[in-house]
Amino acid sequence: MRTLYHYWLCPFSRKIRLMLHEKKLEFQPVVERIWEHRPQFVSMNPEGLTPVFVEDDGKVIANGYPIAEYLEEIYYDPPLLGDTSTQRAETRRLVAWFDEKFNMEVTHNLVFEKTMKRKMGLGGPDSGVIRAGQTNIHDHLAYIGWLVDQRNWLSGHHFSLADITAAAHLSCIDYLDNVPWDKHPEAKEWYTRMKSRPSFRAILQDTVPGITPAAHYMDLDF
Amino acid sequence: MRTLYHYWLCPFSRKIRLMLHEKKLEFQPVVERIWEHRPQFVSMNPEGLTPVFVEDDGKVIANGYPIAEYLEEIYYDPPLLGDTSTQRAETRRLVAWFDEKFNMEVTHNLVFEKTMKRKMGLGGPDSGVIRAGQTNIHDHLAYIGWLVDQRNWLSGHHFSLADITAAAHLSCIDYLDNVPWDKHPEAKEWYTRMKSRPSFRAILQDTVPGITPAAHYMDLDF
To answer: Which residues in chain A are contacts of B46 at CB distance < 8 A?
Structure first.
């Protein structure tokens, strides 16, 4: 059975969980507490981070970028990057936008700072960092709103890994009730469509020990 | 003519420059000073960062990850990711290692801090950040040494985008004379091999206005 080592509020893990569900690939999710530095886990990924994917044949693939590209290569249908090189370039640009820029400016400031930082032995949350994340998120939600207004889905007419990646990050932040949806109705409409996809079900059922999700976290009509 | 908008000490731009040379694709390099926020450039890449690649037919591809994947898709020969899905996953794992982890722990602390930060209006260099980069680089050079001892090239028996990516970052740091080569002979031997590749020539001839390269920067025997 395919196995995915993940952590609940790791956006990179959520991206792969969503991708596996969209491609209808069965897998066993295993929660990895990376701060325990489990030798068996570190031997699979020297970087010590989730996600790590283990194929049926035992092949180990570490890091969200190689896993996503691998899944698209081997299990092409339905395509999640796009069916032309131009479309794939645009999807990948937005995947990078959310995994790099959004992560650095928003997800890390809010999710890592509030949940993982203490577990990693890096002290308590810094209110200045959290405030920066709360400020930065507005520009990104406005960008999502602009994109879906032009294109229906983030990278074009079709649902893609860009939508999955953005929603993976936002769902972690939404769990903590830190997404100002009321100020961004276009982004909210897009996220409502994301939440109603069957692939999103498992994500919405996550319960992180010691952290209660926002009251509306599971609601499809929020 | 294909065009690459790049900046001399941008490791992501250097990766694409090296990749284009390895694939023997002619292109016109254009230096982009991203801190000028040129509207025409921002319209090509809303993130406002280098590299941006413009194809012969006018197609625009922004960000190092989509450009690299596009070049490998369209101009496959010579393959730089690998010829099996397992090999490609390992190459991409190491590309992510250097573009994400190494960049965050080393390149950003040394190159951005010393050169770009002031241009971006973010104040002068922080000596604590620079010291952290100088400390962190040792573990990475040791990892490179370990990999090439096991495998000849970083991701396996063949030269790949992993070597290109690692060398793109290290060459920026070497320009500033901040790589402790004397403590890491295995990594130095590998970098000597990289420097002697024809694709590296243009990189070694870079001269950044106002920043003199290290005395040994261009030497193949350093």
So the answer is: 143
> Do B103 and B184 reside in the same domain of the chain?
yes
Name the maximum alpha-carbon separation found in chain B: 48
Residue in chain A lying closest to B71 (CA)? A85
Residue of A nearest to B74 (CA): A85
Do B108 and B67 have their domain in common?
no
In this structure, the answer to whether residues B183 and B122 fall within a common structural domain is yes
pLDDT at B174: 98
Q: Which residues in chain B are contacts of A46 at CB distance < 8 A?
A: 143
Query: What is residue B37's DSSP assignment?
Result: -
Domain end, chosen from B54, B74, B94, is at B74
Give the domain range for residue A176.
85-200
CATH number at residue B43: 3.40.30.10
The DSSP bridge pattern shows strands A3-6 and A28-31 to be parallel
Q: Which of A46, A66, A89 sits opposite B61 (nearest CB)?
A: A89
Chain B hits for A59, Cβ within 8 Å: 86, 89
Number of Cβ within a 10 Å radius of residue A136: 18
Residues A117 and A177 in one domain: yes
| Contact indicator for B116, B33 with CB cutoff of 8 Å | no
- Are B70 and A88 inside 8 Å of each other by CB? yes
Q: What is the pLDDT of residues A23-46, one digit of tens each?
A: 999 999 999 999 999 999 999 999
Mean pLDDT by 10 residues, chain B (222 residues): 97 98 98 96 97 97 98 97 97 98 97 93 94 98 97 96 98 98 98 97 96 95 86
Distance CA A18, CA B203 (A): 40
Q: Taking the CB of residue B186, how many other CB atoms lie within 10 A of it? A: 15
What tens digit of pLDDT does each residue of A116-171 get?
A: 999 889 999 999 999 999 999 999 999 999 999 999 999 999 999 999 999 999 99
CATH number of the domain where residue B112 is located: 1.20.1050.10
